[in-house]
Amino acid sequence: MFKKQELNKIKKEIEEFFKKMSFEVEIVLSFQEETLRIDLRSEDPRVLIGEKGKILVDLQRILKAILNRKFERTFFIDLDINDYKKKKIRYLKELAREAADDVILTKKEKVLPPMSAYERRIVHLELANRRNVTTQSIGEEPERRVVIRPYP
Question: What's the CA gap between 41 and 64, in Å, rounded?
C-alpha cells in the first residue's frame, strides 16, 4: 500500500516520463491489492496505444521498471489510456459470450482470431463457469488463438 505522499511522487515521475516524450497527459492513480492503476487521458491516445495496444503494453513494462527501481520496491502496475483496456475487456467478454452461444446453437466449434496471452485469458475466464462449452488455446505465437467447443 502506498501513502499519499508516495503516490504524489509516483505521479510526478509519470508526468516527467511523458513530458520527456512530448506528451501532455492527465494522470489518475489508484491502488488495488498489489497493483497500482494508472489511468491516463491524452488528446492523441492512438500514438500511445499503438496497433492492437502493443505500445501501451511496452509503456506499461517500461514504467514498471522505472517505478520499481526508483521506489525500491516491487509492485504491479496496470496502465490504461483513455479507457482502451476497459473497452477492450468489455469487447472480448462480449465476443466470448456470443461465440459460446453460437457454439451451443450450432454444436460446432468456433475458432477466435489470434490474441495475446492477456486477451486469451480474458476469454477463458469469461467462459470458465459455462458448463456447456470448453475453451482451449491452440497454435504458436503470434497466431495463438482460442477455440470454443461444445462440452462433450
Answer: 19
Does residue 74 carry a pLDDT above 90? Answer: no
Q: Residue 63 phi/psi, 5° resolution?
A: -60, -40
Q: What are the structural domains of the chain?
A: 4-82 (3.30.300.20), 87-150 (3.30.1370.50)
Residue 127 confidence (pLDDT) above 90: yes
β pairing state of 145-150 and 133-138: antiparallel
Q: Is the pLDDT of residue 71 over 80?
A: yes
Q: Are 82 and 45 in contact (CB under 8 A)?
A: yes
Residue corresponding to grid cell 489511468: 39
